Amino acid sequence: MKWFRNLGWPIALLYGWVVWVRNKLYDWGWLPSRAYEVPVLCVGNLSTGGSGKTPMVEWLLSRLLPEKKVAVLSRGYRRRSSGFLRVTAGRTAEEVGDEPLQIARNFPRAVVAVDANRQRGIEKLVASAGPDLILLDDAFQHRRVRPTGSILLTSHDELYNSEPYLPVGNLRDHRSQARRAGLIVVTKCPAGMPAGERARIRAALRPGEGQQLAFASLCYGDPRDESGRVFPVENLRKAPLTLVTGIARPGPLLQYLRDLGVRFDHVKFPDHHRFSERDIQMLKARQPILTTEKDATRLQGRLDSFWVLPVRHCFTPADEAVVAGFLGRF
Fold it and tell me: In 3-state terms, what secondary structure has residue 267?
């Protein structure tokens, strides 16, 4: 359907021009933005979904929490509530969004909140929690806040430098805005990526003076059941499974399970899908179920049993040193 895709190019070009103008208005100070005394670290991307923002926030928390009081602020995408809300393990995904709920459950020592108005959210967190550092989740395009620093994520298979703008591609912000990031992390890289591929990507992204570049792969942990009990990953091979995903790009997960020799049928839903009663009845008839941590927040209490496969970013020692050096500024 190449002809249909080409119909979107005029819209994509107009979209790219509009986001360029919007950013220039912020750069020139014609649109107001605000900085804060408390350090604010933004984690985001230039594309729509699938670059691993939530695993990156969790990786940062695992490194920062032993030393700092860290708060996480998200807008809580697709939640049915509004305004500022603190996220606790007892909340539901409908109340606060699936990704903030996942973070709150995995890191109970972190202060997690949601607010579409990031300025208001920061002010309330500072007043109520007194954090040493605030992580802004998925806020690279939120120019009303001037973060202390930014981490920009881009997927290995869809680098922002070659991705078309919406609606032809997935690029939602102007490529030039990559210069605002102090650290660029290329995610979902093949394990053991050769030096030549790293050099190719560096040449393609052309990080500016003072910008750091790191590479990360996805690593999967042992599955656990809905109550949190952990099982050896070999158990996934014992019987055919139904894999349920409502994430932007499940490709790496599918490949991991195939490489592991797991037999499964894939039931794919859109990103952040709200499971209907009809969906739940269909899934109950397709046990055993394997799903992601993000999807589990929306399935909890609705399916009697399922397995969850956790995922995280993995860095080589050299790449981890690059990220650690960047975090040392905060």
Answer: strand
pLDDT of residue 5: 59
Q: Are 306 and 288 in contact (CB under 8 A)?
A: yes
The two structure tokens encoding residue 180: 């605002």
pLDDT of residue 226: 82
CA distance 52 to 272: 14
Element (H, E) at 253: helix 251-260
Question: Distance from CA of residue 310 to its chain's centroid?
Answer: 14
Which two tokens mark 29?
Answer: 């100070």
Choice among 10-14, 69-73, 197-201, 308-312 with the minimum mean pLDDT? 10-14
Find out whether 137 and 55 touch, Cβ atoms under 8 Å: no
For the segment 34-62, what is each residue's pLDDT rounded down to a tens digit? 999 999 999 999 998 789 999 999 999 99
* Model pLDDT for residues 75-87, shown as the tens digit of each residue: 999 899 999 999 9
Query: Contact, 288 vs 239, CB < 8 A?
Result: yes
Query: The pTM is what?
Result: 0.94
Strand, helix or coil for residue 80:
coil
- Angle at 105 (CA atoms; ends 99, 109), nearest 5 degrees: 115
CA distances from 226 to 136, 229, 269, 284, 304 (A): 29, 8, 20, 14, 8
User: How many other CB atoms are found less than 10 A from the CB of residue 313?
Assistant: 24
Which amino acid belongs to residue 204? A
